[in-house]
Design brief:
Layout lengths: L4 E5 L4 H5 L2 H7 L4 E5 L3 H13 L4 E6 L1 H11 L5 E6 L5 H5 L7 H10 L2 E4 L2 E3 L2 E3 L2 E4 L1 H8 L2 H7 L2 H11 L6 E4 L5 E4 L1 E5 L3 E3 L2 E2 L11 E6 L5 H11 L12 E6 L2 E5 L3 E5 L2 E6 L5 E5 L4 E4 L9 H7 L1 H15 L1
Parallel strand pairs: 1-2, 1-3, 3-4
Antiparallel strand pairs: 5-20, 6-7, 6-19, 8-11, 8-17, 9-10, 9-16, 11-14, 12-13, 14-15, 16-19, 17-18
Bound molecules: magnesium ion.
Magnesium ion binds next to loops.
Length: 325
């Protein structure tokens, strides 16, 4: 039996058309009751109303930012978030095994009835789903204007990246409850394995283990970006430190401060700038978010299929063991 699920949607979002979701929805109109929304706040409020009215599943169409808005209304309720990933990166949907823009898989996921509780962490009361970045990565996101993106396409990131890499970066301090302090020029926090698209940064991260994973990179200017790239190419494939410049750790809460203006991003969107003397508190919410996940995890990309092959799994386990000694 198929249930009709309320689907929160911003009817004016360009991603609806770019991703092909609009046409797909027209062909699958029986599966959803479309709930149009006017703004991010409206989307959160409507998600909360639907959850309180007893809807078992509240779906949202969009990228990670839109999903977070829906999640904010659903955290701590019994309603599960259904995901139609039509953004450009769709990192959270990939993490859950739904993949990017695979709407048939997304629909099957919503209807299959498999649900999962996901940890939610906040940066000074602002929740994020997948990852948070402090330092040059956030600065790049802040500086890329829609105009630059339109004219240069993906090259906008490279162009802005080089510009940011040549600037001076503040030293960031991350202090854990046990008093241990890590310092670096770029900090990335992950509640899942992925950092952007299919790029893995935290090999061991899980969204349901109650812990946040952190990579603290200590590098002078330019090489920070290469360090991040290096970690991702290795798919963060180690429990130990990835290189002499990167320290990995896990925790449930921490405080972040810096000796200069520090930009930060949440789920790939610029979120704010921390001033010297101020502190950001990273905490785990006591409530979780319930989400719809696929019955069986289906590897989406050729790289994922390769990495999921039993022989490759065994080979990676052997390397990990060797690194333990
Ligand atoms: Mg975790």
């Amino acid at each position: 039996m198929h249930i009709t699920v309320p689907l929160l949607i911003n009817p004016k979002a360009g991603s609806l058309f770019r991703s092909g979701l609009k046409g797909w929805l027209d062909a699958n109109r029986d599966a959803f009751t479309i709930v149009p929304t006017k703004s991010a706040e409206d989307l959160t409020a409507k998600a909360r109303e639907l959850a309180e009215a007893g809807e078992p599943v509240v779906a949202a169409a969009g990228g990670d930012g839109t999903l977070m808005c829906a999640a904010q209304g659903l955290i701590g309720t019994k309603a599960a978030l259904g995901i139609l990933p039509c953004g450009s990166m769709n990192v959270f949907a990939r993490e859950l095994g739904i993949g990017s823009r695979r709407f048939d898989v997304a629909l099957d996921t919503i209807q299959s009835g498999t649900r999962q509780e996901v940890d939610i962490f906040t940066v000074t009361d602002r929740p994020f789903l997948q990852m948070a970045g402090f330092g040059p990565d956030a600065r790049i996101i802040k500086l890329i204007t829609p105009r630059l993106k339109k004219h240069l396409g993906p090259a906008a990131h490279i162009f802005t990246g080089l510009h940011v890499a040549m600037q001076n970066h503040p030293i960031i301090s991350m202090t854990l409850p046990n008093g241990k302090t890590y310092t670096g020029t770029q900090i990335i926090l992950g509640n899942g394995k992925r950092y952007g698209g299919e790029a893995h940064l935290f090999a061991e991260a899980r969204y349901d283990d109650g812990l946040l994973n952190a990579a603290v990179i200590h590098q002078e200017s330019m090489p920070i970006l290469f360090e991040i790239l290096g970690c991702m190419l290795q798919r963060g494939a180690t429990r130990r430190n990835t290189s002499e410049f990167t320290r990995l750790c896990t925790f449930t809460e921490c405080e972040i401060s810096a000796d200069g203006k520090l930009d930060y991003q949440l789920d790939g969107d610029y979120a704010g700038t921390l001033m010297p003397g101020e502190t950001l508190s990273i905490r785990k919410l006591p409530q979780t978010l319930r989400v719809c996940i696929p019955r069986n995890y289906v590897p989406a990309t050729p790289m994922e299929k390769f990495m999921a092959h039993p022989m490759v799994e065994a080979w990676r386990a052997t390397i990990r063991q060797a690194q333990e000694f």
